[in-house]
Amino acid sequence: xxxxxxxxxxxxxxxxxxxGNAVLAYHKLGPRPGGVRLKGxxxxxxxxxRQLGELRRAGFSSGSLAACAGPNQHKRVALxxxxxxxxxxxxxxxxxAAAKFKAALFLVADLLGKHNQWDVSLGEVPEPMMDVQQVRxxxxxxxxxxxxxxxxxxxxxxxxRRAQEEISASRKKLEDCFGxxxxxxxxxxxxxxxxxxxxxxxxxxxxxxTTVAGVNTAADSPFAxxxxxxRYPSRNLKAIWSRLRAQVx
Length: 249
Known about the structure:
Shape: globular
Radius of gyration: 18 Å
């Protein structure tokens, strides 16, 4: 059976999760506003709570990004949120506390307290980003933060000097603001290459997350961590038929 590219429930992933260290990627939680183009980036609070509850009941606990490119952490799953939306704080803390999970939040350092300007410029619905106090509330709940650059550019499409600034200056800005080391990085849009990875390593990070689907092992680079994007189940006919057959069988 082929493992789905997107994570919505545990059953199709149980076997692959036993072969390495799993990381789930989320973006936005809560009600989806009208006019949204990228609908798959939203997940309801109820769906998020169901996913975490299912993992918890199956014996899974919160995993660490720092340990992902290493020996298999038995029944551990690391949670990550890209961009730093206010709705993650509003709808995510309670379900995570109930399931005893923690998460890493990748922040766009120059846009704290602002909006997702990179999406709005393409016609997407504006969503507020966490401000400094809201990030501190996130940290006070025992969660982590990492860098998602200064402005969320495609790093391979800009000059090397600017890419280096996006990667290094965002780390320093977050460390100065929150008084803690920033060890984790996430490539915006999953856009990276070996040269960008070298810049991330040189900037002093310990890990970097991609959008490549899969689990991580000791043979993998900590600067190319794979993640499964969490989202609603596919509504296409093939997926519906597969679920019906599984129920009948």
